[in-house]
Specification:
Bound molecules: beta-D-galactopyranuronic acid
Shape: globular
CATH topology of the largest domain: Rossmann fold
Number of strands: 11
Number of helices: 11
CATH architecture of the largest domain: 3-Layer(aba) Sandwich
Length: 496
């Protein structure tokens, strides 16, 4: 707000200076003409006043009619007003009033590109493709279709050490995954823990925020060398330090996951694309310089699409590894990485279960509710996450011809789990639930069960007996053991 006031003051000052200058120039004009020609302009409009204090006869340099002068003044005034109005258009403050969040209409998830409703299962694959294309065009952007070659190097394969103890039943692997194209290369370090005695464990795959070393206290996990946010603990000059080990281990309860028979794999999201606005030069965007988003190509990939694309490349690796069930891949993510998990899941049918944890705006939450984080806010705070087209909807959610329930539906017939947290109003827990609810029409058409509840369940009370699950954890924006326990129970109910 303060800078707007500053701009207004500067504009007013400039206008005053301009008026003064104009008057001064006019005065000069009078003297010049008086001294130069010593003629007066009697009969000129306003000439009755053309007499300087010195008693010299005067004449303006440029003679304008009254109408013209008024016109100029009006145009200047109008321009200035429009300009200041544009500048003063602030992002709406976040809404937390439920009564203001209910006035919207949604397009049915069964509504096709021509507005016609699809009626049968055999139309679903085409409808799914349409929905994915819709979100690529309007929100996340298209990832390039050109292949990259993938080279892997297993640089660690040993029992894990967790809590200071050797875990004979947990196999730890670290794999350098090189994504290569036309002489360029990006290295992504994949860390994987799997049950030693299981030959085909279903595997959760999710990106982490702070580097693989932040997910557990195993000293053998390689410290990330990719960009890290200085605001996070254990980071100096955008590099992780030893002290960052295990500082997000509460989000990755590895021992408990493996004890349930699952494998879990993770990679630092910055390996794929550092999370800042660099004009899409670094990370995997740099592998495809000719595919960079710009004003003339507003639907190309942003960072969420890049992270999601990276998850698919990691799936390419995981599905070939021993001990992992290639039919049992699941993608999981928290917050911005929950948005990423949803987009990865919508694109890549190898992910049998898609888990969105507190993904909020641009994730599971309905944008049209305009509750908590809004489209304008997310596009302003994180201009690199989405494509350019998504900016059309800044504070204009009512003009969106789509919403996030269609993204959830695009995952059908595969399964989706949506997790919210009671104090995470910014992510709009009810909006996250309602996406699942409105997506359920597609699941029902496919003979599957979605969500039946339109109202938030009690905290710590998971719901959803079919292909969509939901819970509202008590507490803050985070991904904790309780969340994982529900993901795993749900995965088992899906036969994973
Ligand atoms: C917030 C952002 C959310 C969410 C979150 C996170 O600042 O507004 O959309 O993505 O970051 O990723 O932790």
């Amino acid at each position: 707000m303060q800078w707007l006031i500053t701009i207004a003051v500067v504009l007013t000052a400039l206008a005053l200076v301009a008026i003064k200058l104009y008057r001064f120039a006019k005065e000069l004009g009078r003297i010049d003409s008086a001294e130069g020609s010593k003629t007066s302009c009697h009969g000129c409009p306003g000439s009755s006043k053309n007499q300087s204090d010195l008693g010299i006869a005067i004449k303006p340099l440029v003679q304008l009619g009254d109408k013209t002068k008024q016109g100029i003044v009006a145009i200047v005034f109008l321009n200035t007003s429009i300009w200041s109005l544009g500048l003063s258009q602030e992002i709406r403050p976040p809404n937390y009033d439920e009564s203001k969040a209910s006035n919207y209409t949604l397009v049915s998830v069964l509504s096709g590109p021509d507005g016609k409703r699809i009626e049968s299962k055999d139309q679903w694959p085409a409808q799914r493709r349409y929905l994915v294309e819709l979100f690529a065009t309007e929100e996340y952007g298209f990832a390039p279709k050109d292949p990259v070659s993938i080279r892997t190097e297993v640089f660690d394969d040993a029992p894990a050490v967790l809590g200071g103890e050797l875990q004979a039943n947990i196999r730890r692997r670290q794999i350098a995954v090189y994504l290569e194209r036309e002489g360029r290369s990006v290295r992504v370090d994949l860390a994987l823990w799997s049950p030693k005695d299981r030959s085909n464990a279903p595997c959760f795959l999710g990106l982490n925020f702070r580097g693989n070393q932040s997910t557990c206290d195993d000293p053998k996990i390689k410290l990330t060398s990719s960009w890290c946010d200085n605001r996070n603990p254990g980071v100096q000059n955008n590099k992780a330090t030893e002290s960052s080990r295990a500082n997000q281990s509460e989000r990755w309860p590895i021992a408990q996951i493996v004890a349930e028979g699952f494998a879990v794999a993770t990679a630092h999201y910055s390996d794929i694309d550092p999370d800042y606005d660099d004009g899409f030069e670094n990370g995997v965007h740099g592998l495809f310089p000719e595919h960079r988003i710009d004003e003339t190509n507003p639907s190309r990939w942003g960072s969420i699409a890049a992270w999601a694309w990276g998850l698919s490349r990691l799936a390419d690796v995981l599905e070939k590894l021993d001990g992992i069930d290639p039919q049992g891949l699941m993608v999981v993510g928290h917050s911005r990485l929950g948005k990423t998990a949803l987009w990865a899941g919508a694109n890549d049918p190898r992910f049998q279960l898609v888990v969105s944890n507190n993904s909020g705006c641009g994730g599971a939450a309905l944008s049209k509710r305009v509750y908590g984080e809004s489209v304008a806010r997310i596009n302003t705070s994180f201009p690199h996450w989405f494509n350019r087209n998504f900016r059309k909807y800044n504070d204009r959610e009512e003009t969106m011809a789509f919403d996030q329930h269609q993204l959830i539906a695009a995952i059908a017939p595969r399964s989706v789990y949506i997790a919210s947290a009671s104090n995470d109003k910014w992510a709009d827990p009810l909006g996250e639930l309602l996406s699942g609810y409105h997506a359920s029409e597609a699941f029902a058409m496919l003979g599957l069960k979605g969500l039946e509840a339109k109202e938030l369940p009690a905290v710590q009370t998971p719901i959803g007996q079919g292909s969509i699950g939901y819970h509202l954890r008590q507490g803050e924006h985070d991904m904790l053991l309780y969340d994982w326990q529900q993901f795993m129970a749900f995965a088992k109910r899906q036969g994973l």
